[in-house]
Design brief:
Structural class: alpha+beta
Strand content: over 45%
Number of helices: 1
Length: 66
């Protein structure tokens, strides 16, 4: 299910998870009515680290100036 996450001072609706070697996450910023989805067809410590770094960069670029 979805959860609320405060990330960099922003309140976001999110979901993340993995299944059968795939990982994905979804973040939505309600005030701007914008969101993004990321999916990977592999799961490893390297992919998880990249996923976290990618999330941080996308959130910063999309919503840090609002």
């Amino acid at each position: 299910s979805f959860f609320l996450e405060s990330h960099g001072g922003l309140d976001l609706i999110a979901h993340s998870g993995s299944q059968n070697g795939f990982i994905a996450h979804f973040y939505m910023h309600q005030p701007s009515r914008s969101a993004y989805i990321v999916a990977f067809n592999t799961e490893s410590p390297t992919t998880r680290a990249f996923d976290a770094a990618l999330r941080d960069e996308i959130v910063r670029r999309m919503w840090s100036n609002r």
